[in-house]
Amino acid sequence: MSYNLSKKQIMELLPHREPMLLLDELIDIKKLHSATAIVNVTNESFFVQGHFPGQPVMPGVLIVEAFGQAAAALTAHGLDKSTYENKLVFLMSVEKAKFRNPVIPNCKLELKIEAIRSHGRVWKYKGEAFVKNVKMADAMWSATIVDRK
Q1: Phi/psi of residue 52, each to 5°?
Q2: CATH fold of 3-147, please?
Q3: Could you say which residues of the chain have pLDDT below 70?
Q4: Could you say which of 16, 33, 51, 77 is catalytic?
Q5: Among residues 30, 39, 22, 40, which one has the least CA distance to residue 4?
């Protein structure tokens, strides 16, 4: 069975807020396994004005950030609320990140992510980013769940 989460529901799971909350939706969620995050990249996206004037491109580091947010939301959604309350998910490492095509405004960026394994509070993920079925980027990364201070 798969689930979908709206931006409002994602905000209940993640501490991120505008302008750093990059996800608009999380769809096709398979509990603690996989999901697809939707990022609507528009001319109003906060990074467009300065990266780069006249030829805007979504920064690769923000694609990686969106991967991380999607993984955190997938994990938080799958865990028991008491396990996740008062916790944060921190990125630990990024491996094999490849940026294949520029992501330009007025597109729907789809991030297909998968949890590969978990060991205690450490999780490993992989993801691929697409616009209209064209691969834009892919990466593997690790994150950890830590107590809020």
Answers
A1: -120, 140
A2: Thiol Ester Dehydrase; Chain A (3.10.129)
A3: none
A4: 51
A5: 30
